[in-house]
Amino acid sequence: MPRGSKPGERRGGRQKGSVNKTTAVRAQAIRMAGITPKDFLLNGLAFYHGQITDEQAKKEPDEGKIAAAFSAGKEFAKDAAPYCHSRYGTIEGDRRAPQQQEPAPTDARAPTGDSNVDEIVTRFNTALKPAANGAVKH
Known about the structure:
The chain is mostly helical. It has 4 helices and no strands. Helix 2 (37-57) packs antiparallel against helix 3.
């Protein structure tokens, strides 16, 4: 009789999807509180956003109140971000855009009539131009 399990077959151990003690305690605490951490943080963020918009709607807004509400709201937003957005590296297929490079100057200086200076400028300009195959000249 063959021994071992077939591919994909599970023969023991913890059942798939079962909750461990720590997760069960956390879930019970959230149920008892009546609000999830994400909802709590988003409510705080909405509160400070409301304070900012109310103050800005006034004829003479108090910049100190706006700054204080913005500072407190920023903390709520920072704490709520992991609940709302995945980390950049965990998004499948997402690649960071290559950083924009400033274009190299085409001409360092116009020809002066001095042959030595013109030769240096020509060499400098050719060094600045990228190679056709994308390789970097050294």
